[in-house]
Amino acid sequence: MIVRVGHLYPEYLNIYADRGNIAVFTRRAAARGHELRVDPVTLDTPLEPGSHDLLYVGGGQDREQAMIAPDLAARGDAIRVAVAGGTALLAVCGGYQLLGRGYRGRDGSWLEGAALFPHETLAGETRMIGDVLLESALDEAPGRTIAGFENHAGRTVLDPGAEPLGRVVAGYGNDGTSGFEGCRVGSAIGTYLHGPLLPRNPELADWLLCRALEHAGAPGELEPLSDELERLAHAVSAGRARSRGGR
Ligand code: GLN
């Protein structure tokens, strides 16, 4: 099966090797006989809802976020319709912030968001940096952990009743106080976790790949891979996060 991926603003939002997440999707799909076709979606590129099985957007500095925010906000309807139609989505850090209702910068400027996720972000005085460990809230595997690296000034406040990606075991997460990290809407996942995220979280990669394949018309389980290196990378990352002692 061909999995159609829309990579939003690859030349603007790609810090901490976020592009590596695409490489993981490509390799894990190929290991099961599927092929990923990645379309770069940048300023003014048309985006037809449903024309992609998976949408991906990485993180970036405030400067780059300001460059793409109006274009992304204008795609809000298309992205919400796509996700409601079953398109999977992964958004990291700066991309995650701008898929909420918006981002208030330290200078007070407001970047309108695409309003897919029920949250808003306010940049704080200090940056929240370091290894992070979550207890995943994804229903399939209670208690499974997700490990990564965060570096953000933004404090993201979820609306009451919004679904987080997980509970913070170590690290700051969305805002350093709520104890939650990320947000989920259907098959769309937003998170502050860089690294890149997916090489050390193979289950999360497969969770998203499964939903992208369902949208592409190939429902069903993915045969498990050995994932020895991935589990080792996860264990090392989780160990570093735990050694931070909660913050
Ligand atoms: N510029 C945003 C912030 O500082 C996002 C940073 C990022 O993507 N790592 O919060």
The Rg value, from CA coordinates, equals 17 Å
User: Distance between termini?
Assistant: 43 Å
How would you sum up the major sheet? 6 strands, mixed
Unreliable stretches (pLDDT < 50, length at least 5) are none
Helix content: 25-40%
Overview of the molecule:
The chain has 247 residues and is an alpha/beta fold. The protein is 28% helix and 30% strand. It has a six-stranded mixed sheet with strand order 2-1-3-4-12-11. Strands 5, 6, 7, 8, 9 and 10 form a six-stranded mixed sheet that branches. β5 and β6 form a beta hairpin. The longest helix is centred in the C-terminal third of the chain and has 16 residues, at 228-243. The radius of gyration is 17 Å and the shape is globular. The N and C termini lie far apart (43 Å). The model has no long low-confidence stretch (mean pLDDT 95). Bound molecules: glutamine. Glutamine binds at residues 15, 59-62, 65, 93-94, 97, 151-154.
Offer a quick outline of the entry:
This protein is α/β, with parallel strands linked by helices and 247 residues long. It has helices at 20-30, 62-73, 76-84, 94-98, 202-216, 228-243, and strands spanning 2-8, 35-41, 54-57, 88-92, 102-104, 110-112, 119-136, 145-158, 166-170, 180-181, 183-185, 188-191. Strands 2-1-3-4-12-11 form a 6-stranded mixed beta sheet. Strands 5, 6, 7, 8, 9 and 10 form a 6-stranded mixed beta sheet that branches.
List keywords for this structure.
binds glutamine, 6-stranded mixed β-sheet, globular
